[in-house]
Amino acid sequence: MSESSTAKPFDLKVNIQDLFQLLSQAKQCDVARLKSRVLSLKKNLTKRQPESSIKQEKIFAQIKQAIEKSIHDKQQKLNNLPKINYPDDLPIAQSAERIAKAIKENQVVIIAVKQDQVKQHKFLRYVLS
To answer: Residue 27: which domain range?
Structure first.
């Protein structure tokens, strides 16, 4: 008896749903392209012909590998983000938590400071870190 006859049948419909779930973990810049490939595979599944099932399984494996690579790349990038530290004596440091909270809770935040109190580029780097 061959391995393929004893193996569990490959259910593309179920596995395509798994791909859609994995997409949520992929890099944002890859999601549209990969989603398009999954949708194309799903569409072709309805036209399934016996000789094309092996080809569809191969395409499925390629898409899954691409999604997993995107997830891995995203995780690696997140793990390698540098930690930015600024001296506590900067004027902005005293209000950093309050400013960060305001930015998270509001779409628009207006911050007024004295003209030479903080340089704009330092402020932006501080707030975005």
So the answer is: 3-79
